[in-house]
Amino acid sequence: MRPDDAELAHVFLEEASAHLTVLADAARARAARLEAARGLATAAGLVGQDAIREHAEAAARALAAGDEAGVAAQVAVARAQLDAAAPAVESVGGELFAPAELGELMAGFREEAAEHLDALQAALRLYEKEPRRPLLDEILRKAHTLKGSASMLGLGGVAEAAHALEGVLVLLRGGELGPAAYARLHDGTDELRALVAAGADPAATARAAALRAELDALRHGAARPSAPPPASSPSAAPGAEPLDDTSAGRRRDDQSVVLRVDPTRLDHLMDAVGELVFDRTRIERRVGELRSFLRELGRARSGVRALLRQQRLPRLAELENEMASQVAHLTRVGSALLEDTEALRRTTRMLQDGLTQVRMMKVRWLFQRVARPVRDFERLEGKRVHIATSGGDTELDKAVVERVTDPLLQLLRNAVAHGIEPASTRLLLGKPAEGQITLAARHQGESVFLEVSDDGAGIDTQRVRASLVASGRMTAAAAAAAPDEEIVATLFEPGVSTRADADELAGRGVGLDVVRETVASLGGAIAVTSTPGLGAKFSLRLPLTTAIGQAYLFKVAGQVYAVPNAHVLATDFGTGAARERWSYGGQEVPLVHLARLLGVEAAVAPAPGGQPLIMLEFAGRRLAVTCDKLIGPREIVVKSLGPLLAPLRLYAGATISGAGKVQLILDPAALVQVAYPQAHEPAVTSASVAVAPVSSSNLDPRAAEARPRVLVADDSRTVRDALARTLGAAGYVVDVASDGLEAWDMLHEARYQALVTDLEMPRLGGSALVERVRRDPELGRLPVLAISSRSEGLPGADAFLPKPVPQRTLVQEVARLLGR
Amino acid sequence: MKNVVVVGLGGERHALELRWVREIFTLAALTPVPTAPAVLEGVVNFKGTIVPVLDLRALVLGPGARRTPQTGDALVLVEVEGTQVALAVDRIDAVTALAPRGDELLDPAGVAVPLADPATLVAAARLQIEAAHGARG
């Protein structure tokens, strides 16, 4: 499909969907519906969708005859036809962006969308209890942003489902939705989350269409005034904490001091502090060197003095005296410097702690997040479960919360599926029909303990024994002799739990090795206790805080090493172990033989296809390092090697593998020093890395000078990324702002040749931004391109483009505005 | 009387004061640290913290007495000025109370057991590590 066709098809899909929505809406005026039917027929005819055209015409006839059932039937068929046409359109994103680019954008989008959906659901839950306008605005803005981001990536199905969701959410304003509708909204949001995860999967398209239809139906159903206004007094189960932050006292506490901060900004700050710690370590090393030089100097000086005494050279003795006082001075400065670095250490520590504190979130939020899917597990298993929580006020680092969500869900899923007995069995056993699962959190020292306990059957150790023996992992005698705790602990072992016959292990082994690995990689641990007939309890010990980083992993001499991913340019395969240089991007770079540098035996023969190489760049210097095997980029938890090993400058820290083994992180600064030994004072400040242009396309500073600078303002990270990439590839220097206010500030900091802005943004919207720009004496004539998923233009803007914006159109439009 | 952990280093017995000791555990997965001096056997993950493993035999008896780390080796985790370090030993003989005599301790049979001071040993290891890094420039 050529891009033109893709664009056209996309426009048609949006338009047709809108027509169908109007057509299906019995509450609307007949004239409007007829108009929609004709519009659909015309549009379908234009793109050659004759089947849809025929159904549209049939719907128009039915409508004219007052046959609502006939209309509904035609609409349903037309929808199905439209959905069948949709997969072709779904590939639009693939046409707009290169596959690799699209992959990255997709990953960013998934993350962003998950955040939006979480926030949306949390706000929705609060709104259900107490409808306050700011909450609703937040809810609507999230849905709207999601729609915009999805359409930018060509995920038409998701975009339309989000649009339909928005349509229903708008009705909240009038209090037209009853409690049942809220439940369905939550389900709809969950389904949307699943669709986002599925990405451009064709199967997802059909699901998206189904969701959209359901949401549309919900909207129309709600238009009739039948449901009572939402209840405003929640009744929490006695003895248990409410899952929502609705108890009035607590909310008041939280509200008085809450500041909303974009988490990515915090992440950036956290990264900066991480760099600061490395910088500080380097300064400390330098101070140490300085002091040892001073000691050497002192020793040399006493030698000189002894010699002078023998030689009786008064003038030289005078000079030496002077030098002595300077050395003493220098020594004092050295000591003061040492104290200063100590102060620096304390301050960075405070900064780190403070930032960590900001990133702390209450475990209640995590509990809320995992409690929802449990309803689905219940439905699946046909069981009834009550979830009680305690310790929801315990705080945990956001990064830890994110990584522990899936393991926790896994434990809950297991508890519902395998722990809790069916209601009939429970009644026979004298237990309440409803199973009880308790989620508990508590803070102890540097750790947080999370516990998942259930009052189900517990773990059947005899069956675990039997299957251990059956799988040959234990002899019958050993299994019989082993205490129950030991048997239960085997559930966490890989290979035991991931087997297809996992259910034979009393069914509790499913995914437990993955749970254990995730927890271990966070530097935590997991334990289980079980009482047959009374239930099981899984206890997770987690670190309070953690520093997550992106690293590239590889193997040398059987050991896994990592380098910070930010410094990895590319990987390659090469031959010729004797070479000292490697050609990369038309440039000769030094080749560092890592096995030789580390003084270890490399793998005997390099892999067929050559020896794996990693291109690194640090502080503007490039080098290639050899290794035995590339593993790939991973998210790792960065740990310090501690003060004892700080002098080993080759290492920047370490991480812990899923199996609990330590893996060393190589410091690119040290590798650069090895590769460029002639440079005694390498520019190792990390700040210089941040300002040095990295991509090969802007290596030439003169070229950068001549390139026009464009500011992109959009509150969706996906859209920002997409626009910035497109414009960057077209030769512009692109800066991004996440809202109007930030854009306004940035416009005053640098000279921009054009502004590309979204309309709906927090703090300062697009129209207000453009108004300010137009009133400003300096910026007044700045070319402005407005982009929005709304279809109307923007007064004051020089041009307007509706989302999704095809790459080519965007580039053409910006070029036109700049008169290029 | 001093509360101590008596450890075996080759044929000798040495005592570590209990006040330094946080834990005794066995070596599982050791990660070697290339370019570090031999006195550092490697690093291990102890409850989420990266802990250096020092060869106590080499530290106490000199580089000639170096040992080869093996899975299952006994490790004594000590804490010196807030830093945790694992000392690899050949055996754990006893956790007991011994009577002091000068710089040494006497076991119930009246045989002298030298006292190893973790603070001094860790400082010595630190010097060796610094020297190794200095030599590489």
Number of helices of chain A: 28
Number of β-strand runs of chain A:
22
Helix content of chain B: 10-25%
Order of helices and strands of chain B: EEEEEHEEEEEH
The biggest sheet of chain A, with number of strands, parallel, antiparallel or mixed sense and barrel status, is: 5 strands, mixed
Tell me the fraction of residues in β-strands of chain A, as a range: 15-25%
- Which strand-content bin applies to the residues of chain B? over 45%
Percent of residues of chain A in helical segments? 40-55%
Low-confidence stretches of chain A: 88-96, 223-256, 497-509, 680-705
User: Mind telling me the C-alpha Rg of chain B?
Assistant: 15 Å
Give the terminus-to-terminus CA distance of chain A.
Answer: 29 Å
Largest sheet of chain B: 5 strands, mixed, barrel
> Tell me, what's the shape of chain B?
globular
Number of H/I helices of chain B: 2
Biggest sheet strand order of chain A reads 2-4-5-7-6
Please give the oligomerization state of what you see: heterodimer
Shape of chain A: globular
Question: Topology of this protein?
Answer:
The complex is a heterodimer of chains A (820) and B (137).
Chain A (H helix, E strand, L loop, with lengths): L2 H22 L5 H17 L3 H15 L3 H23 L1 H5 L2 H31 L3 H20 L3 H15 L8 H20 L3 H21 L25 H9 L6 H49 L2 H46 E3 H19 L3 E6 L4 E3 H22 L3 H6 L6 E10 L2 E8 L6 H10 L5 H6 L2 H6 L22 H10 L3 E7 L3 E9 L3 E10 L2 E6 L3 E7 L6 E4 L2 E6 L1 H5 L12 E8 L2 E6 L2 E10 L12 E6 L5 E5 L1 H8 L11 H5 L9 H6 L2 E5 L3 H13 L3 E5 L2 H10 L4 E5 L7 H10 L8 E5 L10 E4 L4 H11 L3
Parallel strand pairs in A: 2-4, 9-17, 12-14, 18-19, 18-20, 20-21, 21-22
Antiparallel strand pairs in A: 1-3, 4-5, 5-7, 6-7, 8-9, 8-15, 10-13, 11-12, 13-14, 16-17
Helix pairs in contact in A: 1-2, 1-4, 2-3, 3-4, 4-10, 6-7, 6-9, 6-25, 7-8, 7-25, 8-9, 8-10, 9-10, 12-13, 14-15, 15-20, 26-27
Chain B lengths: L1 E8 L2 E6 L3 E6 L13 E7 L2 E7 H6 L12 E7 L2 E7 L1 E11 L2 E3 L5 E5 L1 H19 L1
Parallel strand pairs in B: 2-10, 5-7
Antiparallel strand pairs in B: 1-2, 1-8, 3-6, 4-5, 6-7, 8-9, 9-10
